[in-house]
């Protein structure tokens, strides 16, 4: 059996109070695809930092096989000290790594390389960080929430890129579909310990539920045994003193086991404060349009009724937020009309958490700094009680927001949005950083919500579970509504988002207009970065191969070589044959690319 690439043994770490990590064992082997799952705050990111060598544990050991390259993607990359995104990406290369791979990935991920890292959006920053860790093609990739802030097109590209890689992979993600498609084994971090199984995430939740059910049965048996022993202690017939002392010690041990047992964390108690019902018609948009430097929305029509769950998807920059702002009245369309229904009470969740003051406390963020009560549905509720509904401990009341994890900030934003009475929820990326259990509760809450939901999301599984229709950009400002979830949209559309506009898209009744917008013409074929690079470098490679062949041929021209040194003759003959094959392949590739370049220039 091959030695592990990374092995963590008996890792312990405590930040005061209950240990965060207690005797953790984790092994990553060659080409392994491992997902690391657990509740928010369970220590997943900390464990990944220990595996990357960035955090020192209180105890235990970390082994990395000599010569193995490791790259770590943090949730919040540090861009300080870099003038451009390309400089940031190239800084991640090691000796011998190809600098052209850094340029290729920057271009492939939609960046120019000249962006100022200090002014990147969340999505741009995530793409730059991904390019930095992917460019060296490391032996082990440690990725902490790689899909955060990415659009669906980039998520599907990343999924394909990682799936085709040869290195080992350790993933933390809230995206169920992403984990299920990539993982082949699972490490479950629960109450300070790791259970590792040779099954991917698709089988994990069923296995986890079995483990927890068995644990619950064991605790029930333990409780019954303690009761029986206590009954014997009080009322049993006295026997030999030595036997009684031994049995009493056994009871103390049972009580210690019960005392030391750490039960599972509870589930968040998410409930939206609902206002009175809205009218049957919630939003009606007729042929609305919006343009800035380009057309964002062109003659889009839709009729949203009470109880609808509308998902909006598309690449970053396609205009999802612009569309949702026009539909909800936050922005005025350049053309067309939007009519809002009667008795609308709207609550919004903004994905930009920067609006929160990092120096303010959790209590101040929930109460507005006014008192110790939160107004939930128009009624006061003590802030501690409301915090517990969203899995915050009482000790966190005065915790500054800058000290919260990404998942905790996500729950805080939900807590603020759901406190306001509403019959229309507008959610922009509600799933960011939430753990899988909280996502389950959020899905149940939206299923029970009697009002209307409009949401932007890049989580394919979440969309399939929640929405009743999906709105997708088709290019040139044209948006189309498809019935069902994300998978249903792909089946109807006949193409995924990264392949652009499908050959034919339906015109649902809600999206009919007097003018049919033509499908955009396909863009002109261009040489990719790799093709341009090959055209520039292949002539030099061909020249070197010609020189290598001439050198080996001169050695073989010696008529006495075979008789004097048979091993050298065989070695030189093999090298000559290999160089000739490589020359043939290089010349064929160069000719193919040169013909393609001429065709493009003549088109």
Summarize the model shown.
It contains 18 helices and 20 strands.
Blueprint of the fold:
Layout: E1 6-13, E2 21-28, E3 33-37, H1 44-52, E4 59-64, E5 70-73, H2 85-90, H3 99-108, H4 122-134, E6 140-144, H5 152-163, E7 168-172, H6 176-182, E8 185-190, E9 193-197, H7 201-235, H8 241-260, E10 281-291, E11 295-305, E12 309-312, H9 320-328, E13 335-340, E14 346-349, H10 362-367, E15 373-376, E16 379-382, H11 383-389, H12 406-419, E17 424-428, H13 436-448, E18 452-456, H14 460-466, E19 469-475, E20 478-483, H15 486-493, H16 529-556, H17 561-564, H18 566-602
Parallel strand pairs: 3-7, 3-8, 5-6, 6-7, 12-18, 12-19, 14-17, 17-18
Antiparallel strand pairs: 1-2, 1-4, 8-9, 10-11, 10-13, 15-16, 19-20
Helix pairs in contact: 7-8, 16-18
What does this structure look like?
The chain has helices at residues 44-52, 85-90, 99-108, 122-134, 152-163, 176-182, 201-235, 241-260, 320-328, 362-367, 383-389, 406-419, 436-448, 460-466, 486-493, 529-556, 561-564, 566-602, and strands at residues 6-13, 21-28, 33-37, 59-64, 70-73, 140-144, 168-172, 185-190, 193-197, 281-291, 295-305, 309-312, 335-340, 346-349, 373-376, 379-382, 424-428, 452-456, 469-475, 478-483. The chain is α/β, with parallel strands linked by helices and 603 residues long. The chain folds into 5 domains: 6-205, 3-Layer(aba) Sandwich (Rossmann fold); 212-260; 267-345 and 423-523, P-loop containing nucleotide triphosphate hydrolases (Rossmann fold, 3-Layer(aba) Sandwich), CATH 3.40.50; 354-420, no CATH class; 529-602, Valyl-tRNA synthetase, C-terminal domain (Helix Hairpins), CATH 1.10.287. Strands 5-6-7-3-8-9 form a 6-stranded mixed sheet, sandwiched between helices. Strands 14-17-18-12-19-20 form a 6-stranded mixed sheet, with helices on both faces. The chain starts with 5 loop residues before the first strand and ends with a helix.
């Amino acid at each position: 059996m091959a030695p592990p690439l990374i092995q963590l043994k008996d890792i312990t770490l405590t930040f005061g109070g209950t240990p965060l990590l207690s005797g953790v064992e984790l092994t990553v082997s060659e080409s392994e695809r491992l997902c690391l799952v657990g509740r928010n705050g369970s220590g997943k990111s900390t464990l990944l930092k220990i595996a990357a060598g960035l955090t020192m544990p209180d105890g235990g050991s970390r082994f990395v096989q000599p010569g193995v390259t490791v790259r770590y993607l943090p949730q919040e990359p540090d861009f300080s000290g870099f003038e451009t995104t390309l400089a940031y990406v190239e800084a991640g290369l090691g000796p011998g790594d190809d600098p052209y791979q850094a340029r290729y990935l920057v271009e492939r991920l939609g960046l120019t390389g000249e962006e100022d890292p200090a002014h990147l959006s969340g999505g741009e920053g995530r793409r730059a960080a991904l390019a930095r860790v992917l460019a060296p093609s490391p032996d082990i990739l440690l990725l902490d929430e790689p899909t955060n802030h990415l659009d669906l097109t980039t998520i599907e590209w990343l999924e394909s890129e990682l799936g085709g890689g040869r290195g080992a992979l350790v993933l933390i993600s809230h995206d169920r579909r992403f984990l299920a498609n990539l993982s082949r084994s699972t490490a479950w971090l629960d109450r300070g310990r790791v259970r590792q199984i040779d099954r991917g995430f698709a089988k994990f939740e069923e296995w986890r539920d079995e483990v927890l059910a068995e644990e619950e049965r064991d605790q029930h048996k333990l409780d019954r045994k303690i009761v029986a022993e206590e009954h014997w202690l009080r009322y049993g017939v006295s026997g030999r003193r030595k036997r009684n002392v031994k049995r009493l010690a056994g009871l103390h041990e049972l009580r210690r086991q019960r005392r030391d047992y750490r039960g599972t964390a509870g589930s968040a108690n998410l409930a939206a404060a609902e206002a009175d019902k809205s009218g049957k018609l919630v939003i009606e948009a007729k042929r609305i349009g919006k343009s800035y430097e380009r057309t964002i929305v062109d003659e889009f029509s839709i009729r949203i009724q009470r109880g609808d769950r509308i998902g909006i998807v598309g690449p970053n920059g396609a205009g999802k937020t612009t569309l949702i702002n026009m539909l909800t009245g936050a922005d005025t369309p350049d053309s067309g009309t939007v009519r809002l229904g009667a008795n609308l009470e709207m609550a919004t969740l903004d994905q930009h958490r920067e609006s929160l003051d990092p120096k303010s406390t959790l209590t101040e963020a929930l109460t507005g700094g006014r008192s110790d009560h939160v107004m939930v549905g128009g009624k006061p509720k003590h802030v501690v009680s409301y915090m517990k509904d969203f899995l915050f401990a009482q000790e966190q009341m005065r915790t500054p927001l800058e000290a919260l994890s990404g998942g905790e900030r996500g729950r805080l934003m939900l807590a603020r949005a759901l406190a306001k009475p509403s019959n229309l929820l507008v959610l922009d990326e509600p799933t960011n950083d939430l753990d899988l259990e909280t996502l389950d509760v959020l899905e149940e809450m939206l299923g029970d919500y009697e009002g209307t939901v409009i949401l932007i999301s890049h989580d394919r599984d979440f969309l399939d579970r929640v929405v009743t229709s999906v709105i997708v950009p088709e290019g040139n400002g044209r948006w189309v509504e498809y019935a069902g979830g994300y998978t249903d949209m792909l089946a109807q559309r006949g193409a995924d988002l990264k392949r652009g506009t499908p050959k034919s898209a339906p015109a649902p009744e809600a999206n009919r207009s007097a003018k049919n917008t033509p499908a955009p013409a396909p863009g002109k074929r261009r040489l990719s970065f790799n093709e341009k690079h090959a055209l520039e470098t292949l002539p030099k490679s061909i020249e070197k191969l010609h020189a290598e062949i001439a050198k080996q041929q001169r050695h073989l021209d010696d008529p006495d070589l075979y008789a004097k040194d048979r091993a050298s003759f065989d070695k030189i003959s093999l090298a000559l044959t290999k160089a000739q094959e490589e020359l043939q392949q290089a010349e064929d590739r160069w000719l193919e690319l040169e013909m393609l370049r001429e065709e493009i220039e003549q088109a």
